């Protein structure tokens, strides 16, 4: 009987700890792993980053140059269910029990609501001025000039490895509800 009580106590404690970890990771702070080379030379495949989720929880707009994680499924609504499911997927991928979600991308904020962005001659122009981007891997190859105005409540994101990155050039501006947090620490 004492052993059953001990097991029940441990099970209860572990369940509470897991629930708290999921809530903290969903709404406050989350470790995650970089997958791919789209943020080179600054972040590399399998780097670990820590992400502050407070801007997502309180619906803030990130600043220019912030490195953020996004949900790339921009054509679907995102809700609390998604916020709670993402940390579980991350935990499972870190311990190699599941593949990391391929819809979670890490990118840099280039444009905020109301900005007009133009990509031409391998450079990005924001509101008519060329951006100084010392963080990019190499000059961007562009097929044809592209111009976009960022809608309200959305941002425009690009990878630092512009020639090897899926980003807003392909999925369009990202709703703020899909900006899941800001990278605050890289390991």
Automatic annotation (TrEMBL):
Main EC class the enzyme belongs to: hydrolase
Lineage summary: Bacteria, Bacillati, Bacillota, Negativicutes, Selenomonadales
Family: Belongs to the peptidase S26 family.
Location of the Peptidase S26 domain: 8-186
Protein name: Signal peptidase I
Positions of transmembrane segments: 12-29
CDD domains from the UniProt entry: S26_SPase_I (cd06530)
UniProt subcellular location: Cell membrane; Membrane
Main localization, broad class: membrane
GO cellular component: plasma membrane
Record SUPFAM superfamilies: LexA/Signal peptidase (SSF51306)
UniProt-listed Enzyme Commission number(s): 3.4.21.89
Record field: catalytic activity: Cleavage of hydrophobic, N-terminal signal or leader sequences from secreted and periplasmic proteins
Active-site residue list: 38, 107
Gene Ontology terms for molecular function: serine-type endopeptidase activity; signal peptidase activity
Biological process (GO), any one: signal peptide processing
Keywords: Hydrolase, Membrane, Protease, Transmembrane, Transmembrane helix
Stored PROSITE patterns: SPASE_I_2, SPASE_I_3
Cited PANTHER family: CHLOROPLAST PROCESSING PEPTIDASE, SIGNAL PEPTIDASE I
Membrane topology value: Single-pass type II membrane protein
Pfam families: Peptidase_S26
């Amino acid at each position: 009987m004492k052993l059953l009580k001990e097991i029940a106590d441990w099970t209860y404690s572990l369940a509470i700890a897991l629930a708290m970890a999921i809530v903290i990771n969903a709404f406050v702070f989350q470790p995650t792993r970089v997958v791919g080379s789209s943020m080179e030379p600054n972040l590399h495949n399998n780097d670990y980053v820590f992400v502050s989720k407070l801007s997502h929880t309180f619906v803030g707009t990130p600043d220019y140059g912030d490195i953020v994680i996004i949900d790339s499924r921009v054509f679907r609504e995102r809700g609390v269910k998604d916020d709670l499911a993402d940390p579980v997927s991350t935990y499972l991928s870190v311990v190699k029990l599941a593949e990391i979600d391929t819809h979670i991308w890490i990118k840099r904020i280039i444009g905020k609501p109301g900005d007009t962005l133009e990509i031409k001659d391998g450079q990005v122009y924001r509101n008519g001025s060329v951006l100084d981007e010392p963080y990019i891997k190499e000059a961007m190859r562009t097929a044809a000039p592209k111009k976009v105005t960022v809608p309200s409540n959305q941002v425009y994101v690009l990878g630092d490895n512009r020639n090897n990155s899926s980003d807003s050039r392909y999925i369009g501006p990202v709703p703020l509800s899909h900006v899941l947090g800001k990278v605050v620490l890289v390991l």
